[in-house]
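QA checklist item 7 of 12: single-chain prediction sanity check.
[x] sequence parsed
[x] length recorded as 274
[x] structure emitted
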Amino acid sequence: MSITHQIYLISDSTGETIDRIFLALKAQFRNFKCEDHQFSFTRTENQILQILELVKKKDNAIILYTIVDNKLAKFLENEAQKANIPCFGVLVDLILNFSKLINEKATHQPSGQHVLDDEYYSRIEAIQFTMNHDDGNSINDIDKSDIILLGASRTSKTPTSIYLANRGFKTSNIPLINENSIPKILKENPMSICIVGLTTEPERLIDVRKNRMNTLKENQTTDYTNLEKIKNEIENSKKTFKKYKWPIVDVTRKSVEETAASIIKIYEIKKANV
């Protein structure tokens, strides 16, 4: 009977690095079965202790981490050792240690993660779906989305959607003009899908919109770039999100990767509570 390992990926940032490293790592072991659990933005000892409480409840658990703070990394290693949980920093000689742990010889095949498997085709399907459901298009089958993003114009909906699609999530995004711009199906069943509201600081948004207008060589003296109008727009969007109990992610000074990591965490929490 094959063993399914529980892999805990712990990062002090978005988790993108460790996710990619683990993808390459597991491609080296053809018979390796696992379930992975991601924890991004782990930056305190208390967060680590909370994660370890979850890890202790699982058999065949392994921790992989990318934490740049040496003190925090050492704390994680020490606490994992006390609980007899294998724990590796990804910059260690990982393939060798992992091979010993699961008792399987590595293939040492370069680019082993680039395989046209089911996961690959699912990701392609997610990208196609997301492109077809950009900016409020194709709302007739929006209920097939994994994630739906709502937000005012220029709140990073499209780039975040594309990033999420590349991670395998079918993502729709809808520009929030007012409450009437929200599809009826979402207002009637507000908790049926993972819906996330995106917001930002008005002062930041006006700069983004002005740059957009400059690029298009259009007149900037419109409501689109009026600070008071934008403040009302953002405030009304927050009220709408709160009304339907949709979680909010503030994208101000966040990279697309950071925004997506927050959204994925929201998605995983919702999925776990279904």
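[x] summary fact logged: Residues 118-272 form a domain with the Rossmann fold fold (CATH 3.40.50).
[ ] second reviewer sign-off
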